[in-house]
Amino acid sequence: MSIARVTEISATSTQSFDDAVARGIGRASKTLRNVESAWIKDSNVHVTDGKVSEFRVNMSVTFLLDE
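RE: above sequence
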């Protein structure tokens, strides 16, 4: 039987939502072992001078605890 934990993280990108998700998962994987999945809870953009300047995602990342 596996036991998992969920933690919430936020990530940003100037490129796209996909890039923000990839950056968030990449960074989480440096600290958390056994990352299994992520649920994108919220996505929004920051607007500067009428243009999208930053993509933001808030996600719940699930990782398995060591046995």
